[in-house]
Amino acid sequence: MTKLINGTTRRGALKTLAGAAAGATALPLWARYAQASSSEPIKIGFQQHSTGIGAAYGRWYGRTTDAAVKLINEGGGINGRMIELIAEDDGTDPKRGAEVVEKFATQHNCDVGFGTLFSHVVIGSSPRAGELKLPYFVVSEGHHVASGMLNRYTLQPGITDVKSQVQAMAPYVSENLGKKVTMIFPDFAFGHDHRDFFSAAIEAQGGEVLEKIAIPPTETSFTKYFPQIPRETEVLYHVMVGPAVLTFVKELGEFFGPSSPAIFGFIDSLEAVDIASPGLEFLEGTYFWEGNPRYAQADQTEHDKFFRAAVGVDDNGASVSDPTDVSTYAHMFGCWETLHIIKAGMEASGYQGTGDRAKLIEAVEAMTDMPESQAHPQGAKVFNGKTHQVFGHQYISRVEEGKLVRVHTTSIEDTLYPDEVDYTTQPL
Amino acid sequence: MEFGPHLLLATLEGAVTAAVLALTAVGLSLVFGVMRVVNIAHGEFYMLGAVIAWYVAHMMGGHPALGFFAALVLAPLLVGAIAVLADITILKRLDYDPERTIVATIGLLYIIQQLTLMTYGPEARPVEAPFNTRIALPWFEWGEDGFQFYYPWGLSTTSYKLAVIGAAAAVLLGVWAMMARTKIGLLMRATQADRDMALAFGIPVERVYALVFGIGAALAALGAVLIVPIQQAHYLMGADPLLLAFIVVIIGGLGSLPGTVLAALFIGLSDGIISVFFSPTLAKILATLLVGLVLVWRPQGLFGTRTA
Description:
Number of helices of chain B: 11
Strand order of the largest sheet of chain B: 1-4
Oligomer: heterodimer
Helix content of chain A: 25-40%
Largest sheet of chain B: 2 strands, antiparallel
Helix content of chain B: over 70%
Number of helices of chain A: 10
Largest interface: A-B, 37 and 35 residues
Strand order of the largest sheet of chain A: 7-6-8-9-10-14-15
Distance between the termini of chain B: 52 Å
Strand content of chain B: 5-15%
Number of strands of chain B: 4
Number of domains of chain B: 1
Largest sheet of chain A: 7 strands, mixed
């Protein structure tokens, strides 16, 4: 039964609502936020790999980003304005990526674009971001930002690049594991960065790369590639991505059996995969690069503890609600840190709206030291405004009793290399 | 690695591919042969088999063999049931019209794939093999001491991979026996030969169609359950098997079971061997080139019979 109180009828209420809505639509855009720009949200376009080969990363990038946005909004937002996150799936596809960037700039009227991981998608999307003058904050690891391949509107302030990572690994590998290395890597930009920069770095250490084995990123069966590994290999260096990574590592173990060389891998080969999965027992005693230690270490910082709790990750690097749902812990901190840098940049430049995008770029370019803090839980970093690339500590972990235990932390100096570009000379 | 051991390894890897490919392709070929339906969603039935295998194995707990064998029975049954349902609700309503069923199965492909992404998620999840021992394989050489065996580095397979080859062969024999020796096989062959005549003789053609579509999907699912301890269950895993199955079926002759099995062996083995010695891309190029040549010179396939 519907009771009529004070003559309010359903029809009457609808009329009033419709009138109000029509009135609001008729107002000029600025008048809806008449009490000054302070209540209009800051729109951050989140280019997410929700589907395609990057989907496992996309899911965790999403959770980390949501947690960071929640934290920033609870702390009063950016310049007193809330962040509104607009997530769009790019299918881990470069063509779709460029369209998503375009949607952010023209359709959603986003202040910035953010969050892309896979290097081919970054390379496909970045030119469009530059043309549309949309600040584009990638969380990709690829060397394409610092190499000068992209443009002034593309920045990578929240995660280090492959060149600095592998350069910092080479001394440890050659001193502790061996000097004759065979590399296995995915056959696209990210893998080629590994191939080129590690080969150069290990040669600088007096070592050599015996064989370079490139595997198509969509491959599902790997044993057929392994006979190319030369017998005299002392260290096997592996880095794989995509949904078949577990097959890759398992077949590697089955191929070698009991007589394997030392194995050094990038954790990318096992991101979102449980180290305790059946068939991975042979990894015991092998080494991994980690961007951020997946397992809570004995000397865990309060910031790492806070970050884990905020995102919902337990001490084993898995979701607190489902221990089989393993995170992409070595990479996803980059989303958290990048969002905090966007906030710092907008606050430093007094960012008001899309007209201030150039000021935001200049404010981020002016950043240098980023001390370890709640905003930077992975560790201290140094940003290079000319190359748009951040530099930071790298971690090497060893598998001990089925867990990754950190055995080495590089200095930031270990990861530096001469500038290859000065984006600040490009017009804004 | 030396040439001999290398070739043996490549052949073994190729044989595993061929075994699973044969199951998938026979399912596709059966559906086309009897129903004249080109099932684009076939790869998704394969994927569903793997995903259901993961769910079953995950829920069973206990010894890995328990979950695996439960999945081996349940996954094909469930996928078969889903396919029967799809046949009754979709394909039947389209009167099995060749063009419209293609569009309908493309739709089915996306529905199954995206529903899996929404429920099962984007991860690749493993199912533990019921048994999996690494078997180092010996090789021989004529040395100074005459003929002798030795174990080359990396020349190995696993007991499970060998079992996959055996199981696939057994299932294929079963399919052949069903088609050639049972009443239901007879009904299928009659329907394949002449649908209207079969109908006139009182064969329940619609039920035969539903059953065939179910069996075709169940064979794909069975192939997936066998492969899932080697690879992992992932929502995009259906694309490659679909492409390869089409290649195999076209080369072997649509609707010809022996042709399909032989073509699967040929494509699987050549894929293994060519990708080891040259490159995986070349293997795909050659397979696709072969499809082109077959379509030009022998459109009914190597073993197909020319339709009047």
